[in-house]
Amino acid sequence: MEGRTAGRGRQPADKGRPQSRSVDCAGGKTANQSYTRKIPAVTKHTTEAFSIKYVGLDVHKDTIAVAVADSGTGERRVLGSIPNDTDALRALVKKLGQPSELRVCYEAGPCGYVIQRFFQRLGIDCVIVAPSLIPRKPGDRIKTDRRDAGKLAGLLRSGELTPTWIPDEQHEALRDLVRAREDAIEDQLRSRNRLTKFLLRLGVKPPDGVKAWSAPYKKWLDTLVWDRPAQQVVFAEYRQSLEEIQQRVTRFEREIETLAQTTAHAPTIAALQAMRGVKLITAATIVSELGDISRFENPRQLMAYAGMVPSRTQQRWQHSSREYHQDRKRASAQGYRRDGLALPACFRRER
Description:
elongated; 5-stranded mixed sheet; two-stranded antiparallel ribbon; Nucleotidyltransferase, domain 5; alpha/beta
């Protein structure tokens, strides 16, 4: 008791420091309590942090489901659906608050980057998330637009979403051009198969030693004549369709060559052509699909993005090292197509 009294009576050496005072507590005891803070406990920056609204959008062709999750641990609020147009989005932003207080996200899908670029022009932070990397509960089998929007808002607030890389408009134009050529190549393959199967049904075969779709093969096709006019019309239409597709492929390749020289990725496209087996079309395809290669932290991430890293779900002790290397060799030999991306052999080699 005497020590406590002496402690209260002792004066601090520095009178300029904030001092403590004794207050009475229950049970006749006393405790030291500091003086009132000179600065407020809640500042402007903390109030701004707590005023952020996380908006989840479930985007469709005609409608957008909207949900909002406030900062903290509050419940998510579903605001309903709005039309998928700029006027409705602008009214939504005006209703929610200041652009600096909004964080928006939606899943990557067929609607592209139009909504993200609209929010970007308004100064709103908007990300497009990868649907395959969204956390999902195994037992959650109810899927609606409103629930998906609310889930996106909550996961965005907790930081559990993985954003995708968003290309600029020039890069997107190059990618659309490359993918359009790939579509034309697939149409060309289908058209050739229709013609060859037509000849096979009628028992018409090319001469020995003539390779399919070579110059001698095309000359042989010019000599074919059919007794029935209907079959002659079918044969002529198949060949005409094939020639139109070939002309379309040529136009696409000519445009790719022009755009590859004027785009910002022209140095990268030129550098890739220094590799063996890589020419203009392959280099432009790689650049258009991978985008900014520097976004990958290491080569393993790049190979995983391209699908060159085989997945394994078995236990390690159930498979020998020989089987593991056989799986990697099989995956490397098959190659991989990712939205028209055909990686050459130099990219499949193990470094």
